[in-house]
Amino acid sequence: MNIFRLTGDLSHLAAIIILLLKIWKTRSCAGISGKSQILFALVFTSRYLDLLTSFISLYNTTMKVIYIGCAYATVYLIYAKFKATYDGNHDTFRVEFLVVPVGGLAFLVNHDFSPLEILWTFSIYLESVAILPQLFMISKTGEAETITTHYLFFLGLYRALYLINWIWRFYFEGFFDMIAIVAGVVQTILYCDFFYLYVTKGEGRSQLSIPT
Amino acid sequence: DDPSLEKDEL
Question: What ipTM describes this predicted complex?
């Protein structure tokens, strides 16, 4: 494991914890897209089924359990515990337009036509677009709480660090996974617009106002 | 590709 992969995982963990704590502490999920959180729970569930079949390392298993646990805890807080604060009127992205094409693509383009591999491929493709409902919701409301922008920053940074990790592994190990790389590039590109606003306007403002 | 290629990444 190289430093980019490790900082990528820690950035991802930070994003997940920031969001969970924000909802728990403020007892509110205002401005948070429940649909994106459901998609992330689906990503982790379909990707980490190998928890049941193979043990890779304590770190690997621990992180997967934490990711799955936090994802479902976040979905529970949004749709059950703090349901009254869920802004359903602005969380209107049609996720079926994401899940169906991604599901089809996973069957067409994969490394191996086995159930675990198809599910892994599905999770890779889905993760690259899972943030769209959240970005769509922010563009509709025109603003995002500062803590939400930090969540998005670390979430976007994690896959960007993975891209560097893959460049590193290609150069030093000859490791190369086209599916993960292409999906990772798409995923990171979706954050570019947000990264620009985060860096240029994030400083010193209480709300990040995104031009609708 | 070798499907049993262990996926050590998250």
Answer: 0.85
